[in-house]
Amino acid sequence: MNAVLIIDKPAGVTSHDVVNRVRRLLQQRAVGHLGTLDPLATGVLPLVLGNLTRLAQFYTGSEKSYEGTIRFGFATDTYDAEGESLGEPQAVGCSLEDLQQLAKRFQGVIEQTPPPFSAKKIQGVPAYKLARKKKEVKLEPVQVEIKEFEITSFAEERAEFHARVASGTYMRSVAHELGVMTGCGAHLASLHRTSVAEFTIVDAHTLEEVEVAAAKGNCEALFVHPRKLLPAMPSITVNDEVAAQIRSGRAVNLPEFSKTKQVKVFYGQTDLIAIASRVAGTLFHPKIVLAGAAQVQVTGHR
Hints:
With 302 residues, the protein is of the alpha+beta class. The protein has 3 domains: 3-62 and 198-227, Pseudouridine synthase; 64-196, Pseudouridine synthase (2-Layer Sandwich), CATH 3.30.2350; 233-289, Archaeosine Trna-guanine Transglycosylase, Chain: A, domain 4. It is built from 6 helices and 16 strands. The strands form 3 sheets. Strands 1, 2, 3, 4, 5, 8, 9, 10 and 11 form a 9-stranded mixed sheet that branches. Strands 12-14-15-16-13 form a 5-stranded mixed sheet, with helices on one face. Strand 2 and strand 3 form a beta hairpin. Helix 1 (15-26) packs parallel to helix 5. The protein is elongated, with a radius of gyration of 22 Å. The model is unreliable at 293-302 (pLDDT under 50).
């Protein structure tokens, strides 16, 4: 079963929990996800199944969009609603206009300190493991890009926002830093991911929908059409002869793509058999083979 399935992750479960449940429901061992969501967070969690797990390398830097709520008045040790308060509640004296002005400081390429409860490693140990033991967690700021960040409303100490960010950005840190700026503390109360790369919440299915489809043997109806994957990369549909060469890991000539670095190779309308990289001129070598005789990643001709 080679497919991409978009899950609308519920709150209270980890991304790994979702992967494990889909493995059981679809009786598919090879399942991975394209970007972790915290247990608190909900929304778009793309899963790759079977040989299409090899596509994960093309999504490591994917842009993501969010909607969420920031609660002002106190900070927490996890920077979100699941953590312990770091002090007594503070009076909130800021306005919507104040927050909207502060939000502008976050837009663009900025330095951001990851949350202490994160998977960032300190001397090989994930920061969250140290934080859970009440040990000091000192993480260095990293460069991230926030392409859009707008506070859309503010009432009863809660600010609603939407954001569009590059990979590696922590919205929990944004909430915490806003609390520092306002002087009253803040944390991320809720987070809903609305898109990852080309996948949006419109494409997403609940775990209950997957369970029903699996029981009926109709899971294919939930999968993303292969032609929609990696839309920025051109595609070609090849004949039997070229398909056989690519499936065997051999280089092929693709005259249509003399200036293209990589191309998706289809056999028929739905069978994505490879991602091929240009070696020289119009000669392409399969970087990864997704279907056919060659079932391992091809390492030559980088």
